[in-house]
């Protein structure tokens, strides 16, 4: 496995994952959890999410091999999922109903499905079709730092960006995600057709 650092790849993977995880868009959900007296540990949530995402980055490809699915086919499927997710972000449609058992909210719904959910898993394997694994891991780590800061200072972040600022950012990243989804689908579809 070649390890090749590329700032461009790290930045690109970071933006894609940031848009998919959408921690800023989840701020109202996080605040509502706190208002329902559900506690969570920011550091623990970020660390568990990082471990799960990186583990899936390695195990995910083996799972694909088990089902005899190549990475390009999965990238096209992942691109379609990202496409739908982007449309949902742009048109403000909720995917998950964020209910969790009373008490702690660290694992459910924070780690799963908000941070390390189906969309994140799909995105990781789709990114693996195009980017070096080292750059993806760095991008995941950087995103988990952002997640930690947002969870730790949720009210400060909301006040800094404002409700309208968070709304605009969600739409903006939704459009970026839509463009990336289209690129993922077309690039991998071309390679699949070429291999026939």
From TrEMBL:
The chain crosses the membrane at residues 12-33, 45-67, 73-93, 105-127, 133-151, 172-193. GO terms for cellular component: plasma membrane. Keywords: Cell membrane, Membrane, Transmembrane, Transmembrane helix. Pfam families: MarC. It is found in: Cell membrane. It is a multi-pass membrane protein. Belongs to the UPF0056 (MarC) family. This is UPF0056 membrane protein. It comes from Macellibacteroides fermentans.
């Amino acid at each position: 496995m070649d390890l090749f650092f590329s700032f461009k790849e790290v930045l690109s993977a970071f933006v894609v994952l940031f848009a998919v995880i959408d921690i800023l868009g989840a701020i109202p959900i996080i605040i509502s959890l706190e208002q329902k007296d559900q506690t969570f540990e920011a550091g623990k949530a970020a660390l568990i999410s990082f471990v799960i995402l990186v583990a899936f980055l390695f195990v995910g490809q083996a799972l694909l091999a088990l089902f005899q699915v190549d990475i390009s086919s999965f990238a096209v499927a992942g691109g379609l999922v990202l496409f739908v997710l982007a449309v949902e972000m742009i048109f403000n449609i909720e995917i998950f109903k964020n209910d969790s058992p009373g008490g702690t909210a660290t694992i459910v719904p924070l780690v799963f499905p908000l941070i390390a959910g189906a969309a994140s898993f799909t995105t990781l394997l789709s990114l693996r079709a195009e980017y070096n694994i080292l750059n993806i891991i760095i991008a995941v780590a950087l995103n988990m730092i952002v997640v930690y800061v947002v969870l730790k200072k949720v009210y400060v972040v909301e006040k800094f960006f404002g409700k309208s600022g968070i709304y605009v950012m969600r739409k903006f990243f939704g459009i970026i995600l839509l463009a990336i989804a289209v690129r993922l689908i077309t690039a991998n579809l071309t390679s699949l057709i070429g291999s026939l």
